[in-house]
Amino acid sequence: MGVTYSQFFPPHPTLTEANLPSQTGRVFIVTGGASGVGFELCTILYQAGGKVYLAGRSEANAQSAISKIKALPATSPGELNFLSLSLDDLTTIKPAVKAFTTLESRLDVIFNNAGVSLPPSGSVSAQGHELQLATNCLGPYLLTQLLLPIFLRTAEAANPATVRVIWTSSMIVDIAAPKSGIDIADLTTPPTDPQKNYVTSKTGNWFLASALGAQVGPAGILSVTQNPGNLKTQLLRNAPWLMGFLTAPLLYSARMGAYTELWAGLSGELGIADGGKYVLPWGRVHPSPRPELLAALKTKEDGGTSVAALFVEYCEKQTAGFR
After folding, report:
1. Quick check: is 68 catalytic?
2. What is the DSSP letter of 11?
3. 5, 171, 180, 249: most buried, per Cβ within 10 A?
4. The whole model's pTM is what?
């Protein structure tokens, strides 16, 4: 209960624009960077001198966001660029990666920030997958895997754990994930309840973060997931009005969520040994994840249930044809 309470009322952030070191020379991708937490994160990184790619489907929205960010005061700004992709359409991912790697020779951090929550029941992606699973898991998984070559090249000349992949989960994982973590049968036959599918996708992000941590940790790349916090963003636009009314007093500004992601992506308090861990608002490692979820992260050979491995295997199979 204490951990859940502290996610509603987190301690003060320790890494903000006020004490962030210069990010000059570093390159970032932020999915969903045109609004909400992504917009705030792009603003902070740009004003710190970073080169930031706002990745999303709408160039008009991205260019509008870029104009707004550039209009803000900044002493040593970096660069802002649009990267076209739609996470709910796997055919757009490989062209986006090709476009990025044609322009850039390094990538320091990707923030898999974009997501969808509680769309109308039955909503599906371009490939027919449940929309939340597609947008929150399959798209980011494929994007990240295709970017691994440039990540690995960047890590060769970087300090360990400074090259990072940041995934996005939710407090709902602590509250509502089933004991198995994910009901694997729900992947092929999604429930009609959008809330349950959302829980699956957010738990899945943790599973993907953990698996990637094991995959690339030996190369010096850190992969973690984070709950940005309970925020006033467009993520709740599809939620029932009563949910929005009841939760409104407990919601924080999008800038606070950006501090969580900033800490996950740039804090020197994290090292390679933290690969696969879960970051809480506004920047701290989850002290006590549910034991059954930790078991799901482990293979049966290591005393766990292998549910995370099954989820990653599912994501790999669904995206293999789009490499």
Report:
1. no
2. P
3. 171
4. 0.94
